[in-house]
Amino acid sequence: MSKFPKLPGLSFDGTVYEDEEMGVLEALLPTGGFPTAHAPAMVELPNGDLLACWFAGTYEGSADIHIVCSALRNGETKWSAVTDLSRDPKKSEQNPSLFLGPDGAVWAMYTAQDDRESGKDNMQFTAEVRCQKSFDGGRSWGEYETVFPEPGTFCRQPIQILSNGRWIFSNWLCTDSPDGLAGDPTGFRISDDQGKSWKLVMMPKSNGHVHANVIELSPGHLVAFMRHREAKRIHRSESFDWGESWSEPVPTPLPNNNSGISAVKMKSGRIAIAYNPTSAPESQSGKAAWPGLRCPVAVALSEDGGKTFPLIRWMERGEGFIGDENRTNNRQYEYPYLMQSKDGMLHLAYAARTREGIKYLRFREEDVAGKKRETMGLYNPTAAQSR
């Protein structure tokens, strides 16, 4: 028998429930009393703990926005209370990612930008990238270090380690210009000495392509999937030389609504992408579009390196409204982060209920691919907890 209670209606207390209809485990993480939560990230620790972080405060871009974290300790069925990770009272700290460093610490990389100025809503052009480390599994954090001080540097995906040991860290470069967000290009920080030094490689003709998610298809052959500011499609670029050069971005079949995406290569070899399957096909070329609707959350699987996605499932249906007349009755479920743990389980987190908090799901690749549970064996959450 499962040790997880059946789903009665989630609340933001961190309790993990079994959703029999969807065949997943799910939880609403504690909010810590902050009115908004956005841009979650996760990592599996060596002992099997799951650590999650996100930015919280009153409103994105405000000085009280900072990074918080919560943990699901191995064998437990409830996420821990929220604790502060960062707290610079003069900066808006956003878009965290988590990385297991060679020094045995968890590295939290995030952006820190100036507070909103009177009459200027977007201060991303002032951002720098900082790093804080934890040597005790996220229970406490050291002082921040500024890693990339160049103004306008933004990030989302964690540092990726390639098969030759090279590190690659996706950035996009924000400017204060009339084109604003639509003109921001993608660049990659590359390190061959475990982060002691970095060089910057730009992606050609990538203006308006951000949130690059890098995946290594085979040694030295990389692919990056990107959010598109024109809100039409998720775009794709390739590198055949370990990230030294990149192709111009081209659209994939997957729609994009100018919101965050998350991609991962699974143990099976398939690529999985979490995203909102909506777009604004009538958006003006070269201009940022904001369709508004960030619901549902889907996970799509590719068996050809991200060229096609024949297997797609809505993992979050929101309030379930469909159609032009009532689709705005759905709340927003956005900025997914997707990862696979050592036991093969998939873990998905995203901002839920219009940034009221963070929702967490755990499921199998087969739960997306659609194979019947009668042939795959019953989903056993208790076994999923064991390491």
Secondary structure layout plus pairing:
Elements: E1 17-19, E2 24-28, E3 36-44, E4 50-57, E5 66-72, E6 83-84, E7 91-100, E8 106-114, E9 128-134, E10 145-148, E11 153-155, E12 160-161, E13 167-173, E14 186-191, E15 199-202, E16 209-218, E17 221-228, E18 233-239, E19 250-255, E20 262-265, E21 271-275, E22 297-302, E23 311-316, E24 334-340, E25 346-352, E26 357-363, H1 365-369, H2 373-376, H3 381-385
Antiparallel strand pairs: 1-2, 2-26, 3-4, 4-5, 5-6, 7-8, 8-9, 9-10, 11-13, 12-13, 13-14, 14-15, 16-17, 17-18, 18-19, 20-21, 21-22, 22-23, 24-25, 25-26
Determine the mean pLDDT. 92
Low-confidence stretches: 373-387
Main β-sheet description: 5 strands, antiparallel
Question: What portion of the residues fall into strands of 2 or more residues?
Answer: 35-45%
Series of secondary-structure elements, N-terminal to C-terminal: EEEEEEEEEEEEEEEEEEEEEEEEEEHHH
Strand order of the largest sheet: 1-2-26-25-24
DSSP summary, beta strand count: 26
Helix content: under 10%
Number of helical regions: 3
Structural class by helix and strand composition: mainly beta
The radius of gyration over CA amounts to: 20 Å
Shape: globular
Measured distance between first and last alpha carbons: 18 Å
List keywords for this structure.
387 residues, mainly beta, five-stranded antiparallel β-sheet, 41% strand, disordered C terminus
